[in-house]
Amino acid sequence: MMFWAPAAIALITTALAITRANPVHALLWFVLSLLAMAVIFFGLGAAFAAALEVIVYAGAIVVLFLFVVMMLSLDRAAALREKMFIARPVWTVPVMFVAVLGGAIGMAMFRENLPVMAGRAVPPYDVALKLFTGDLPLVELASFLLLAGLVAAFHLGREAEK
Amino acid sequence: MIAYLWLVPALPLLGAIMLGLCGGALPARINGAIGAGSVGLAAVVALCIGAAWLAHPPPQQLFTQVLWSWINLPGFSASIALALDPVSLLMMLIISVIGFFIHLFSTEYMQGEEGYSRYFAYLNLFVACMLLLVLASDLLVMFAGWEGVGVCSYLLVGFWFAEPANGGAAQKSFIVTRIADIAMLAGLLLLAVQFGTLDIHTVLAGAVAAWPAGTAMPALAASLLLIGGLGKSAQAPLQTWLPDAMAGPTPVSALIHAATMVTAGVYLVVRLHALFALAPGVLAAIGIGAALTVLLAAFAGLVQSDIKRVLAYSTMGQIGYMFLALGAGAWGAAMFHLLTHAVFKALLFLSAGAISMRLHHEQNIFAMGGLWRKLPAAFAAFAVGAACLAALPLVDCGFFSKEYLLAALWARGPWLWAIGIAGAFLTGLYIFRAFFTVFFGGAQTDVAGSYGPRIIVPLAALGAAALVIGWLQAPEFLGGAAAFSAFLAPAIGVAPATHLPVLVPLTGMAAPLAGMALAYTLHANGFWRRQGAATPGAVRRLCQTGFGFDAAYRFLFVTPFLVTVRALRQDPVDQAFGVLERLAVALHKNLRHAQNGKLRRYAGWMMAGSLATFLLLVFA
Amino acid sequence: MTDWRDPAGLALALFLLGLLGLLARKNLVFVLMSVEIMLNAAGLLFIAAGMRWGTPDGQVMFIAVLNLAGAELAVGLVLLLRLRGRLTTLDGDAANLLRDAP
């Protein structure tokens, strides 16, 4: 029960997110999807991941997205155009393709009858221990990546030299 | 003296090289002198060798002179060597002496022609190759000479190459003889593989020892070599090239297509008679083919209006007679007829050339007439030649050789003899048709110029020879002289003496006389002229074109070849490769759509690829 | 704890939804958002795997994925802004300078 309700919410809100014409609306639906995911993470015993999902993903990344979208200040004409872009015929081929892919992977995943195995909740202590002893290079790499992203965003975002 | 044998082919070869290299720079007189002189010197050497031979023949009547070793492999060896025995001595004398007279004639006949030095270079080269052919001790050297004379024939028939028809005639002669030569080469290879050598004596001895008479191997070898001989001698079914080869200058026709090259087939069979004697089936086939050729040539010669074509068909027929004798196993009779034919045919061709050179190179007999008064020398020469050809009794050499030949045929089988008689009648008919039409009746064309000594001397010499040499081999009722057969006996054996019923030689004398009489009657009647002027009917057309052999060959070989060539013109193999090219272009056109710059499409394709990989990994 | 295959199935479904959005939408904002959805789905799968094996590796990878998503989004949005400045449209298909594109 802990799993299926948030799962349903996640699915529905994601589907809504990708079909909106207004980007702000879409992003807001996306946020709801992320919150549902956080609940699922918590239900899977990954409390730390749940926290991070809310704080970082929903709280920073999507907010960044929203800022930029608002900066774009899309007008009425743009909204109408957007509505045209998502007319019914546009979806047929992608849906077919995705269905095929999904069917294939799903069949692969669920064809073997494995015994149901209970999992284990992993507390944040274990995560921290692993992260700062065995996977330390990952932390370093993550910082490299963030630095690179920062510099790139700063440089590319500059106004052109007059 | 006999050791100077190598000089005989070497002198004309040297002449050819000199003329070829610097003939263009020398004046015409010098070129003529070199051309005729080299062959003349070779003739002198040959005559001296002949005299030495008669005085002191070498042991076993065979002289071999090895010049160089050519091939020396574990399975096969060949050397360039010359061998002299009575048969090749005879041939050598014929070629060099008659060749000299024809060269002498040419110096005046071809005077003023452009390409004078080229002509003599080719002619000298021809004489050298022909001498090599007859003097060769090894079949491989003989084949080299064989091919050489074929090339020279091509060069000389197509001498006036500016006219495309001449080139076509030259190509025709070369290609037909070449096809025959392929068969001959196959025969030579067969012999080489069997015996490890192509030395004539070794091969013949080996064949007699290893192959019983009447079996398949000698028959195969003999028939392959025979096909080569048939092509070179213009016998059926390979005779189509000879009438068209008259496109060359007349002295060329005299030398090549009368006296020497076309006799190479006869020489080949006589040379290898031991092999042919092992294959009686092949001999029978020779007889049948020769009979066909004799009749074909006689009928065709009866309706020609170009004098050279008349003589060409008569050559075909006379060589057919020689092959008839060969088919009957009468090697000596064939060789005697070869000798007399060389003399009188050269005489006939030279006199035809002498006539036409005074008539602005006119060759149609119906454009000539009443020339006996105006061209007495040519008239006398042609008369002697025609008498020999028809074998009129007693006065000429043709009679003696034909009698000898017909006697040998009678001994073999009456039906062959009957064909010989029919041929003799027809020969008399057609040659005297030409004779009367050309020299009698009303004059049609005016005569220009005069003859120099270089025209008269060869005609006189050949005419005298034609009258005299017959007596070398006389039939019984005229003394039975057998000098000729005695001379050749060590090489080809002695034919068994047969007694002929009296009717046989009488019929042999009567037939040509009857032919001549009929020809005269029809001439006095004006029949020949009327027939010549009228449009030819179907039968005449058939005879005129040599009985449709040309048309048949065109249908069987030329047309399919041309059709194939046209079909292949687009190069189907290349077109097949073009499929790859077109496929590549089509793929390009279609795959180009993937590079459309649309982001989502690229994403879609990436996912499709991932899907495919996934499916492959999971389900395969 | 649930059977790991349930969250895995959900992750698959969410991933497919993200893919659908990527393929169907022309507006680049939505394309970037769909990419985020897909990354999130991958993260869910990692968490599920970590739960199943009982190791912290799942959550560590999730942190890495999060990191990546952030950096990538930042750069992507900047590029989006630059594109809009050039072409005054957010249509991804408009950024096409290929000659004779069909």
Helices and strands of chain B, in order, run as HHEEHHHHHHHHHHHHHHHHHHHHHHHHH
Topology pattern of chain A, helix = H, strand = E: HHHHHHH
- Main sheet of chain B, how many strands, which sense, barrel? 2 strands, antiparallel
Number of helices of chain A: 7
Percentage of β-strand residues of chain A = under 5%
Return residue spans of chain A where pLDDT drops below 50 for at least 5 consecutive residues: none
Mean pLDDT of chain B: 87
The end-to-end distance of chain B, rounded to whole angstroms, is: 95 Å
Beta strand count of chain A: 0
Shape of chain B: globular
First-residue to last-residue Cα separation of chain A:
60 Å
The amount of beta strand of chain B, in percent, is under 5%
Rg of chain B to the nearest angstrom? 30 Å
Structure report:
The complex is a heterotrimer of chains A (162), B (620) and C (102). Chain A has 162 residues and is mainly α. In chain A, 77% of the residues lie in helices and 0% in strands. Chain A is built from 7 helices and no strands. Chain A starts with a helix and ends in a 5-residue tail after the last helix. The mean pLDDT of chain A is 87. Chain B is mainly alpha-helical and 620 residues long. Chain B has helices at 7-22, 28-55, 86-109, 116-135, 139-157, 164-195, 200-210, 216-232, 241-244, 250-259, 264-271, 273-277, 280-301, 307-327, 331-358, 371-374, 376-390, 397-412, 414-439, 453-468, 483-492, 503-525, 527-533, 538-544, 549-568, 572-591, 599-619; strands at 63-72, 77-84. Chain B has a two-stranded antiparallel sheet with strand order 1-2. In chain B, helix 1 (7-22) packs antiparallel against helix 4 (116-135) and helix 14 (307-327) packs parallel to helix 18 (397-412). The termini of chain B are far apart. Chain C is mainly alpha-helical. Chain C has helices at residues 5-24, 28-53, 57-87. In chain C, helix 1 packs antiparallel against helix 2 (28-53) and helix 2 (28-53) packs antiparallel against helix 3. The N and C termini of chain C lie far apart (53 Å). The mean pLDDT of chain C is 88. Chains in contact: A-B, A-C, B-C. Chains A and C meet through helix 1, helix 2, helix 3, helix 4 and helix 5 of A and helix 1, helix 2 and helix 3 of C.
Overview in brief:
The complex is a heterotrimer of chains A (162), B (620) and C (102). With 162 residues, chain A is mainly alpha-helical. In chain A, 77% of the residues lie in helices and 0% in strands.
